[in-house]
Amino acid sequence: MSLPSRLIACCSRTAASLALSPVPRNPLGQGQHIRTAAALIIGDEILNGKTLDRNSNYFAQYCFELGIDLKRIEVIPDDENDIIEASRRLVDKYDLVVTSGGIGPTHDDITYASIAKSFNRPLAYHTETLARMESIAKNRPSPAHQTEEQLTAQKRMALFPEGAEVLFVAGDLWVPVVRVQGKLCIFPGIPSLFQKMLDGLKPYLPLPPPDARPRRVQVFTSLPESSIAPYLTQLQARVSAERIRIGSYPVLQRGVYVSLIGVDRKRVAGIAAEVEKELQGKIVGEGEKGAQR
Asked: How is domain 36-137+149-204 classified at the CATH fold level?
């Protein structure tokens, strides 16, 4: 489950008047930056087909553009044992882990509590989050009277693993990014919120330097994939030592997109020119690719 839509709507209408969190020290250590990442998508609604997961795709694009090697995307149910096992394993293996979903006020929103158990932390109300929640609540229509149970359910959304970093990354949202173990960042599942908060998190992440970020060039050819396979196999063997990756992606009855990815921009451009010539193709931009598919 996710945050109630009425609370999110009020966030988008509120003036950007809430202070952002100061940027803390590098959680990975001085001089270190994020190299690898994983996404943990949490929700029964994803697995039973009710909701289409858009967050993992957005995160994949985010990582690529920033030069982070996204190694794994996992989708798991709203199950405490699954969340505990997966969060421990991914944090142990990767530099950045994001979770999506399960931070609303209902019984099946168990992400905060499960992550707390995963890393042996108690839960504690976060005073600043409660204050921001109440501040924004004043600007939205609400029922004339809320029961004690309803108020308690609302406050659950500010019940975080004790000692976690609480990062307010958007001036018009009370919802923070909660970071545990310096690596695991907890996000809501609503795509518009996930995307906005992920973008806002950039200043708080030790990102790779710009010269470590890859370039992707794509060549479209009308030749069938089977006929270009031998050449691409030989080419990949030739450039593997240069950390250049080559992929082929067919479009039914039209042709094939050949993708070349590498950090050395000049070298990638040179190989793309070779591929364009050898495969009687054309270098295309992302916009052209979308139009032809």
From this structure: Molybdenum Cofactor Biosythetic Enzyme; Chain A (3.40.980)
Q: Which residue has the higher pLDDT, 286 or 250?
A: 250
**Residue type for 90, please?**
L
For the full predicted model, state whether its pTM sits above 0.85.
Answer: yes
Q: How far apart are CA 69 and CA 25, in angstroms?
A: 22
Amino acid at 138: K
Q: How far apart are CA 161 and CA 113, in angstroms?
A: 7
C-alpha 293/C-alpha 289 separation (Å) is 6
Sheet bearing 165-167, strands edge to edge: 69-76, 36-42, 96-100, 184-187, 177-180, 165-167
What is the full DSSP assignment across 232-279?
HHHHHHHHGGGT-EEEEEEETTTEEEEEEEES-HHHHHHHHHHHHHHT
Residue ranges, comma separated, of all CATH 3.30.70.2860 domains in the chain are 215-284
- Mean pLDDT in residue range 191-213: 96
**How confident is the model over 190-207, as a mean pLDDT?**
98
User: Residue 240: what residue type?
Assistant: S
* CATH architecture of the region 215-284: 2-Layer Sandwich (3.30)
